[in-house]
Design goal:
The protein is of the alpha+beta class and about 475 residues long. It has helices spanning about 5-15, 30-35, 60-70, 75-95, 140-210, 215-250, 255-260, 280-285, 285-305, 350-420, 425-460; strands spanning about 100-115, 120-135, 310-325, 335-345. Strands 1-2-3-4 form a four-stranded antiparallel β-sheet, with no helix packed on it. The longest helix has about 70 residues, at about 350-420.
Amino acid sequence: MRYPSLLLATAALAGCTVGPDYAGPPATAADAVTRGTFVRGARAAPVPPVARWWETLGDATLTVLVDDALAHSPTIDQATARLREAQAKLGQQRTAALPSASANATVLNARVPGIGGGGGSTDLTFYNAGLNASWEPDLFGGTRRGTEQAKANVGARVADLADAQVSLSAQVAQAYVGLRDVQERIRLNTASAGLQRRQLALTRQRFAQGTASQLTVERLGNQLENTQAQAIPLAAQRDELLDRLALLTGQTPGALDATLTPAAAIPLPPARVAVDTPAALIARRPDVRSAERQLAAATAGIGVSKAKELPGIRFLGLLGLGGTSPGDVLDPAKLTTLLAPSLSWSFLDFGRARAATRASEAQRDQADAAYRQAVLAALQDAEASLSRFANARSQLAQLLEAEASATRAATLNRQRVAAGTSTVIDQLEIERQLLAARIAVSEARAGLTDSYIAVNKALGLGWSEPGG
């Protein structure tokens, strides 16, 4: 071997790694982490939440829908494919520092014209079989930094897949709750229209008898038309939600009509909601984890760029057997060997390599800011959802009181009708007001469950490890 010193020097240099080492994400929202609780979550239970949070709603149909969506949605398939792509690139990057070799066999036929002015030509045939090898040592750690970068990108894609699961489970639950709310409002609207028809019919009888005015008849007729008109957008909204649920579960529009058209109650959240702590939120929420992994990848990218500013060495090797007859490729005496080290260094590139490093540093700074923004946005999302949830509970409580009052009024007026001190028309109007109160309660129930869904989405729940 003629190059032992060069190989030893190369091995020594290969231990160097340029660029900054990743020291973890920057400290962000230290006050929230130190406090240990959410500002708006005073009514929430500070215990670890349930990962499959939709099961706490106690609706078997919803659980089936969410599981179907997570298993069959094209959105999840896309995120899974991006993860496989990142994993393949990591495997590719890990081989970059290894030698490469290839085998080849050649048969070359050449016709050489006569030499020295003579006529004619000579046919020559050459046979060769050989092995080519090349190796580029990772002198300054650029390849190692590339592997770090690829590994961090895999982590980011894992987090992106989890984020897609979180978003999808929340979308399915919100669409399902919206469907059950619309179905209930359609039912109550139909009942209200029935009461108004009876009111109108009785009022027309009174008008014919001269005890009611034409104005009263027209007013009640107008109310009935408005109530019937309200059913039209509700039906359209119901159909849209049925199709949305089909899409979210990877099915065609109409595929869930037979299953979901029968109405069911709006699922309600548990009495207490587990939210854990802001620090746990930061560690768990997938979009924050993705931003952290992107920061790690960008940090490693500085080393990748910086290594390109420095010299590189490449070893080319050749082992070959050959000659002018086929038997020469089997003759050890015909062995040809070649080892060719080559040094490359673009020291005069007018600052292009250095500019690329500065661009990588700027990308790292962008990723740093993006991570801090992701943490703050996650905390704000959690605080807002907890506030909405608490207020939705208060609103539902008040509307339930209003419904109870309307129920008592209807009961009392029935007694008056039985005693002859109130009319059936008055009773129908009171019962219509009771139905209006129940419609408001249905919307408030749906709003409460929607806010509970938003809390779990903000907490970053609803994902599982790939393959889990």
